[in-house]
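REQUEST ID: PR-0412
SUBMITTED BY: lab tech R.K.
PRIORITY: routine
TASK: structure prediction, single protein chain
INPUT:
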Amino acid sequence: MTETFRLATRGSDLALRQAGAVRDALSSRRRDVELRRVETRGDQIPDELIHRLGKTGAFVRSLDEEVLAGDADLAVHSLKDVPTEEMDDMVVAGVPERAPSGDVLVHPDGLGIEDLPSGSVVGTGSLRRTAQIKATRPDLVVEPLRGNVDTRIEKLLAPGLQAEHERRLIASGEASAATAEEGGEGGNGGEAGENGDDDEPNWDALGGDGDAAGDGDEVDEGFDRTVEEWFDSLSDLERSAMERKVETEYDAIVLAEAGLRRSDLFHEIQTTRLPREEFVPAAGQGAIAVTATDPDVIEAVRSAVDHPRTRVAVTVERTILGELNGGCVAPIGVSALVQGEHVHTRVRVLSTDGTEEVADTRDLPIRSHAKAAEEFAADLADRGAADLIAAAREEAETDEGTRQEADDE
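STATUS: complete
OUTPUT:
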């Protein structure tokens, strides 16, 4: 008789895909797996940035509690969300082979971060990415961004697609009727309110002046398809973006490559890999963690999904993060790669505004990688990393206090 494991997971598309990969690996070992969707604290506060959700683990604790309570046998997490401190009786039973761990810049035309015009708005919900962007390009504007992977991409694409749709409607002579029918709001007709004028389109934003856009023959020269044909050519992601109303217009956004690949969106959009020397990933980024408490379940998971090289690399990363005691309140990037008998490790600790940093690379011996990681972290702390983290923590506490006062008023 095949034993059935109950696997706790978040309900987002990415989380379900990660859980599905673990389920498939266990199924190959004659284990049936039943997925249990659980709403986490992070899911319940969609308008808050990750670093404001409190202690690390906003997306983890609810799932692990299902296991501790006996309502699930194991749980699946993005490893970078798993706290580095002890988790009661929970054990990271398995770490599957890692996906690409770096960050990518998503831009509608595929521009790299060095090509963005000064003043461009870049979206991210990460303290680390914010600080790294500011350190590399202090002339860019970084704005908060939250949501699932597809939601973030839609927020980036929406204004451009809506403006393009408006241009085509103007060229075809349908703009007035469409605006009257849709009330000038987002969706297929674009958002008039975003242009700062509810009565007329913003001609500059639409790609010309009023007289030129009013001349149907001139505008028509650039279009070889009807509005309907153009709309039919859009992907499902672009069509969803067309219907999204956005408050902030982003020129580009930064996302984890692993999330894009696991969501099957990597080839749907234009991306540029960010240089790892400057954009050091978060500890555990690109890796999945399977947690459990029962010894038999732990052994079954470990034999089915654990990838030794990935396990060594993320152990180094999480050991350094834990020793620095940065959690999610400080901009810390830690990246490790197993290379023969050594683990090539890069760490970058920044101030929240990106103006100060302590960074280094070191090849750690694989046979004593955990101990060597502790020593590396201690050295970084002595060289100023501890001071940067303490300052970031103080900023976070001040910010929390300010928001609490506002809530009380």
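NOTES: The CA atoms of residues 334 and 347 lie 5 Å apart.
REVIEWED BY: pending
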